[in-house]
Every structure is written in C-alpha cells, then in structure tokens.
Design brief:
Strand order of the largest sheet: 4-1-5-6
Strand content: 15-25%
Radius of gyration: 18 Å
Low-confidence stretches: none
Mean pLDDT: 88
Order of helices and strands: HEHEEEHEEEEEHEHHHHEE
CATH class of the largest domain: Alpha Beta
Number of domains: 2
Helix content: 25-40%
Length: about 270
C-alpha cells in the first residue's frame, strides 16, 4: 500500500537480487538447481554490463565453482520495455520442459527502478508446480509509443498514441487470438491480468474484452504503487496466484512499448 524511494546506492540490480532471493525463499527450491536466470529491465544502471550476472553471483545460483569464483548457471538480461521479463516466461518454461537441456529450474525476474517500485521473480520447473501454462500468443509491431534515444537522459512518449493504437490495439489482438486458439470464452476465465501502466487502461481494455470487475480487480495493483514497468503484469499475476484456487484459469497479457505483446493462460 505504499511507494518506496531508493537509497543513493539502490538501483534495478538491488531490486532484482531482492526479488530473486524472495522467490527462492517462497518456493523452497535449492538455489544450486537453478540452471538459467533471466532479468528483464528497461532501467539497467549500466549501458554495457548485465544485471543477471550479479544476481547469479550474489544469490549463488547453480553449482558454485569456488576454485574459479564462478557460478555454473546461464544468466542473461533482456530488454523490451515493460514486457522484458514476461517475454522470458515462455523461454523459461520451454527450457525446463525438455529433458535434454538438463535444466531443473529457470528463474525470470522483472526489475525496474524508474519509480523505485517492487519487483517480481518467478521460478519455472516441472516439480511441485502451483500453476501450469496452458498456451501463449505473441504479436509485435514497430509502434514507438515510448522511447529514449541513445545518450538522451529522459524517455519520451507519443502522447495520446500511447493508448491507441499502441496499448489497446495490441492487448485486444493478443488476448482475443489466444482465447480463440484455446477455444475459451470470457466465462471460462477466472482472472484477467493485463499490463497496467495506469488505472484507466486495464479497466477499459478489460471492459472491451467483456471481463467483469471480479475477474480483473484481484490483479489490478497499479493504484497502490503506480506503474512498475517490467514488474507490472508479473505483480498482478503474483497477486492473483495468492488467491486463486485449484483448476481456476488466469489470462495474463503483458505489453511492451515498441510494441510487443505476450499473452498466456495459467491453470491452477
């Protein structure tokens, strides 16, 4: 119910490490079994220097090679505005699904420091799961509704075009395509979690898709602490997973300015 202000030495790296630590504690998973870690962010404090390597080292993910001072884990950063982390959900789930990859668990973290907001981390694996991914659909277009040119200190956005055609066109298309692909009707969905840059956009798009307030309200957290960028839709998903019951279905739709869309359904 509050916003936080980072200390002078706190940034997206700090948030990513904290999110990963909490995910390990919450899941009870042995950190040595994490074979891959993704960190999605649009506010890396370094122009060239990954966040994921720091997360892996601080949390000691994977097998620790003390002789060489390295961690036996694959770590990588991703950047695509607010969908930088959720875009990796598909990659993480695919990685742990196929035995030949020899990856027991993969961690996906969304961390941004633009508003010093909370961050989210999810661990994907084939054992002791609390939710299964039923399917996904992605769509992408070059719609520059939000951008920052190299060496410019502050980002810019396309004013009213940030809503339409950017946000609404892509969210509507992705959600409808996924539901058609899985042969789902609105009444088959228990929770709807869209990207939430503000309070108005997700409420409006939920209404346009036919979802009722009781379907989208549990995951609507933007009014409590504002836009959290790469952690926006993941935080909504986390809130829903806290209250969802077995066999309930969640539709998650993330959005990244640029414009890329990732939508997926989860079955509890």
């Amino acid at each position: 119910m509050e916003r936080s202000v980072p200390f002078i030495d706190e940034d997206a790296v700090t948030a990513a490490v904290e999110a990963g630590k909490m995910a390990l504690i919450h899941s009870g998973i042995d950190k040595s079994l994490i074979g891959k870690v993704y960190v999605g962010s649009e506010s890396n404090p370094y122009a060239v220097n990954p966040i994921a390597s720091k997360v892996a080292q601080v949390l000691k993910l994977g097998k620790e090679e003390k002789t060489y001072g390295v961690q036996g884990v694959d770590a990588i950063d991703t950047e695509f505005a607010c969908k930088a982390s959720t875009s990796m959900f598909k990659d993480a789930s695919s990685l742990v699904y196929y035995p030949k990859t020899n990856t027991a668990y993969a961690m996906a973290i969304g961390a941004d420091n633009a508003q010093a907001a909370p961050s989210s981390a999810f661990i994907f694996g084939m054992q002791d799961v609390i939710a299964e991914i039923e399917g996904w659909y992605s769509c992408t277009s070059d719609t520059p509704d939000f951008w920052r040119r190299d060496l410019e200190p502050y980002p810019r956005h396309g004013g009213r075009f940030t809503g339409e055609p950017a946000y609404f066109k892509h969210v509507l298309k992705a959600c409808r395509a996924l539901m058609e692909q899985l042969n789902l009707q609105v009444e088959d969905v228990d929770y709807f979690v869209p990207h939430q840059p503000n309070i108005g956009f997700p409420v409006k798009v939920a209404s346009q898709l036919g979802f009722k307030q009781e379907q989208y309200e549990p995951g609507l957290k933007v009014a409590k602490f504002g836009n959290v960028y790469s952690g926006s839709s993941p935080i909504g998903l986390a809130a829903v997973l806290d209250v969802a019951k077995p066999d309930e279905r969640v539709v998650l739709v993330s959005y990244g300015s640029g414009a890329g869309l990732k939508t997926r359904t989860w079955n509890m």
